Amino acid sequence: MDYMNLAGRKPEIIDCDNFFKSAVLLPIANIDGKECILFEVRADTIKRQPSEICFPGGGMEDTDKGSMDTAERETSEELGLTRRQMDIIAPLDIVITPFNFMIFPYIGKISDYKSINPSAQEVKEVFSVPIDFFKQNKPKVYHVSIKMDPPDDFPYNLIPGGYQYKWHTSEYPEYFYIYNEYVIWGLTARILINFLRLTK
What we know:
The protein has 200 residues and is an alpha+beta fold. It is 16% helix and 38% strand. It has three helices and eleven strands. The strands form two sheets. Strands 1, 2, 3, 4, 5, 6, 7 and 8 form an eight-stranded mixed β-sheet that branches. A three-stranded antiparallel β-sheet has the order 9-10-11. The longest helix is centred in the middle third of the chain and has 13 residues, at 67-79.
């Protein structure tokens, strides 16, 4: 049997080929003597999530050597920096969403904040928030319900309980930080919170 050939293999995430994979950089820069996290406001004209706040990053391409390479390439393209102007420190935890997104976040230092020259096609604005702000202010949390929604032709006759089958439900937390006029939420906030928990 071919199952013997599986000995020594490394596990992957089931159906990972069906996920949209991307990588982002949580960039830190020293601004006026304070350690700050940099954020982007996405361009109004961009197709996916226009005007939302995010970290620099994007989809993995076949030419990328790995997720870290993706994070570096996308940050370079969006912030107008060379790779020498950023120093990847470590990976954060991988984010998997119920919506078939898999995100590989990294934390990195930007050596010269004043050299940032955002791509107008992708980035409307870059702003910074002192790390101390997030340490001193907890986010607001709202829980979004997630439930199964079978199609009309689902074969209930094939499962125990039929139409009365007890589907599992879950809650998906949405975090919100409000800093001046900026609202940081969604996956960006989840990645940020992971970073804060790891660096407590």
